[in-house]
User: What shape does this take?
Amino acid sequence: MQHEVTTSTLPFRVSVGEPDSLWADASRTAQPTTLIVTPVQLHQRNIETRLREQTRPMSSLMFRRLRGVAEELLKETGEPAIAADRVDRLAYLPDILVESQRPVYDRLAAVIGQPLSQHVETVERARGELELVTGFHPQRMEQVADAVRSNAQRVSDPATIDTLDLLAGVSQLHDDLADNLTTDTTAEQTASHLASETAVLTRAIRELTANPDIWAAAYPSIEQLVVAGASMLTAPLEDLLRVVATRTDTEVQLYLRTASGPAIADHLTQTIAVDAPGTQGVFSWR
Amino acid sequence: MNARNGSQSDTEDVASSESAVASDTAPTPTVELVGRTRQEEARLAVATAASLVEQGVSPSDIVIATADVDRYEDALTRATARYGHTLAVWTPLQIKRTVPYELIDATLRLLVERAQGAVNIQTLTEPLFVGWVPVTGRSEPLAPAIINEIGRGHAGTDQPIDEWQATIAAGDIEHGAKQDWMAYLNWIAAQPDAPTSKEITETLNPVLERYDEACLPEKPGQRAVSELAATLRGFERTTELVRMTRQRYTRWLATSRTDKQWGVVRNLFESFATTVPGKRELPTAAAIDVKEANDLWALSVPYVIATGLVAEEWPTTPVSPVPSAARSVVETTDIDGVRPHSAWTTARDHDQFEVASNAATKVFVATRHTTAANGVEKRPSPFLEHVETTRVPKAAQQRLITEPSAIPEPLSDYLPMETDNE
Assistant: This one.
């Protein structure tokens, strides 16, 4: 059976295992009442297949990718935004890394490889990983840096220096990407281009924190938000779940997977919400 | 706690599959088959499926699951031919990230926009960026600088193709670049506004053929081998998607479900890419699905055969540009909201293994091999350590490979008939 992990400090429900409540709750409604976010599109199809096998109606369900939710929230603010994809980013990286002549990129090259323009895919991968882990949230990046420093045997530990230079380099790169995309946005474009899906999500979290009414405006009939299928709970996704759970009338249920789930659930019970969720910044240390 | 718990909750539903009949608190049993080489392992997997079908199990109640379809597709396909079955290989969804897919998608978006009137400069330049090559003349795509020159100069402009032709013709552009641009615009202008189904392939196939000739063999040194392999696969799948799109469009036109529109063509193309990664929609409905294990999430299938339960393959060793010291610090420190990336640990691979074994309601068959192509020994996946498995004896495995009509023990215990008699 399912293993339910709910603590008093956590504003949303967490379970490890299959999204059982969906099998029981899916019903026929005029308007969708449950918003389901899955990381893979095929997972939506699987949920539908499963419900069809049980001949359950499913008009109460509405499926979105995380990016779709972020975009729909921003649409309600009157300032829509869409995410650049990997192809866009790879196209911008060589110019930014080479032409900006920032010392932080020289140090990044020392970690990743010279010349950086030949290693853009690795750079992008590091940017993407650290973005999902920290959300480029200033406080989180500082805490990661502190933890890495205090773990090292000595101050000049090469792995520590590499980590801090990497964090400094990719968070700066993320910021420069945003600037470049803004510069290239033409007046005719109705939505602004942000550096990544996470950049769109973090902006949506900031807007939602400032004005929780945009949630109900985007999802007037939604009573429950269900997130399922992910092997990782990213920092920005956790922030979104916390904001929706505490600032709106929608209940939040997170389903974790059987192998990765217990550690994530455990971590959630040991930690608290971050201040100023959705903030993105640049880490610097020297 | 482990895979077995999840499968109990699976049995709570009153699924139409016969497996639900067997629902009780007993965990789904795991049977292990061990081949010497990957090819022999693939034969064992397919022979198991063939023998289940022989015993009356519907192919749709069997799924072959693996962590990496690419690694097994060839071996499984060869084994299947041997046993006279058909596989439907569900490729991972990365097709959308391959250049050939993007090329056709960008071309279709362009044609959709043109059919509506004005074409935005961004839509106009996209096919060029992803490898559009003229049918005659140039043998390579336009240089990004030439595309960018026009793109930046006309940022934000929306106008019909004939006006684009006039703009470029009158523009102060280097002669060769102008010729290339005019060839491109003339090609667009020559395409039908409301395509018949034949015209879909007449428009798109030459685009793919030219891309193949001009781009595919050229740059192996520039890209990682895996990326080139992905592009080659992407090319094959895209060609197939175009064919499937045409077939469905033909049917829709014939039944008056739609009128002739590029918009419909594009939607079909896109929805095939997302929902039909394999060959499911082809007339071979009796095919056995081969899926990436992750794609079984939330599903319930009587017989799941998982291939590739070998150390270093399932799970693979995590690699990351982030130093391992930093990764382990993140893993062991409680920082608000900060957890290891799924590429940093084997948790994601473990989730996929659990998904495959949880999906099985009758029996979970785990296969592996013991020897790499270079003769090096391959150890079993650590995920098998936590599962109680029954091995099929060697002689019985050999008989299964030679003659799959006889199903070996203990697999024979999990046939539909046996359960019904209980």
Q: What stands out?
A: The domain at 3-92+289-421 of chain B is CATH 3.40.50.300 (Rossmann fold). Chain B has a mean pLDDT of 84.
